């Protein structure tokens, strides 16, 4: 399981919650040490025992703090009930994912995303990847900012169990719309992923995940293949309509009118 680094915890680290987050940080350190020793089962049992002794106390403190209960590690709470210990995996709730990140549980520098309760490590960005993301972002920034809000590798909340950070996304809204929440599927009109070393991951996990969430349109830029594929009309884990474009083609996003030339994303010359 990868380390964690994402958005803020909405003030949960102040006041009476600080002690809780310190305990969470210590448990995360124990988990990392267990993984480093390739003792995954031992690490999970260690965290399970630690939380077993703390869960009721945390809940009681939440009651005394005016009824605001800080729910941490929902996946482990369910595991303690005997529902998911069979495969020794946690399914993170997105709220817990953010709290753990703000507590520094998995470190501050890793790039990770939450998909269906699983924390996935995002590969490092190579120059070609960075260039394509920058071009997409600059083209999208030309849209009317009062109508369309553009994000670059920022979180979106697909569900209670999924909070990825697409390379570029466009959502309905203007300045201040997303001050207190991440964009949701109902607000997102486009998510775009650029792939080089992560192509298999994007095709197997991300595009199907966007379809399940009901995102109307997704783009996948494949740097190895020098193509841009559009996905429209989500149906279950698939999109009914797909189209692939190559050098010399222009791709038009239906909802916003955004136009992107495929050649601009990766240059006119073949990679050496």
Strand content: 15-25%
The side-by-side strand order for the widest beta sheet comes to 3-4-5-6-7-8
Helices, by number, come to 7
The average pLDDT is 77
Low-confidence stretches: 1-13, 34-86
Principal-axes geometry comes out as: globular
Tell me the layout of helices and strands:
Blueprint lengths: L17 H19 L3 H25 L9 H7 L13 H9 L9 E4 L2 E4 L5 H14 L7 E5 L15 E5 L15 E8 L3 H15 L3 E6 L4 E9 L2 E8 L4 E3 L6 E3 H5 L6
Parallel strand pairs: 5-6
Antiparallel strand pairs: 1-2, 3-4, 4-5, 6-7, 7-8, 9-10
Task: Describe the structure in your own words.
Helices cover 35% and strands 20% of the residues. The chain has helices at residues 18-36, 40-64, 74-80, 94-102, 127-140, 199-213, 262-266; strands at 112-115, 118-121, 148-152, 168-172, 188-195, 217-222, 227-235, 238-245, 250-252, 259-261. A hairpin with a 2-residue loop joins β7 and β8 (238-245). The chain is globular, with a radius of gyration of 20 Å. The chain starts with 17 loop residues before the first helix and ends in a 6-residue tail after the last helix.
Key structural traits:
alpha+beta; disordered N terminus; single chain; 7 helices; 272 residues
Question: Summary?
Answer:
This protein is an alpha+beta fold and 272 residues long. Helix content is 35%, strand content 20%.
């Amino acid at each position: 399981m990868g380390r964690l680094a994402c958005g803020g915890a909405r003030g949960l680290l102040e006041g009476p919650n600080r002690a809780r987050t310190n305990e969470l940080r210590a448990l995360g350190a124990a988990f990392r040490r267990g993984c480093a020793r390739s003792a995954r089962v031992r690490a999970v049992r260690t965290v399970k025992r630690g939380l077993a002794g703390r869960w009721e106390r945390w809940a009681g403190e939440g009651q005394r703090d005016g009824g605001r209960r800080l729910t941490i590690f929902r996946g482990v709470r369910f595991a303690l009930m005997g529902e998911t210990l069979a495969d020794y995996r946690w399914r993170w709730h997105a709220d817990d994912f953010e709290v753990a990140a703000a507590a520094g549980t998995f470190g501050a520098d890793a790039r990770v995303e939450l998909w269906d309760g699983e924390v996935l490590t995002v590969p490092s960005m190579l120059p070609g990847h960075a260039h394509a993301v920058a071009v997409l972002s600059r083209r999208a920034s030309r849209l009317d900012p009062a109508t369309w809000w553009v994000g670059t590798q920022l979180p979106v909340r697909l569900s209670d169990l999924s909070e990825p950070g697409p390379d570029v996304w466009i959502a309905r809204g203007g300045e201040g719309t997303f001050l207190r929440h991440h964009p949701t599927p109902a607000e997102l009109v486009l998510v775009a992923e650029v792939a080089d070393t992560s192509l298999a991951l994007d095709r197997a996990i991300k595009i199907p995940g966007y379809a399940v969430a009901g995102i109307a349109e997704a783009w996948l830029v494949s740097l190895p293949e020098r193509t841009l594929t559009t996905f429209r009309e989500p149906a279950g884990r698939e999109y009914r309509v797909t189209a692939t474009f190559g050098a010399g083609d222009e791709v038009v996003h239906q909802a916003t009118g955004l136009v992107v030339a495929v050649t601009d994303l990766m240059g006119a010359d073949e990679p050496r």
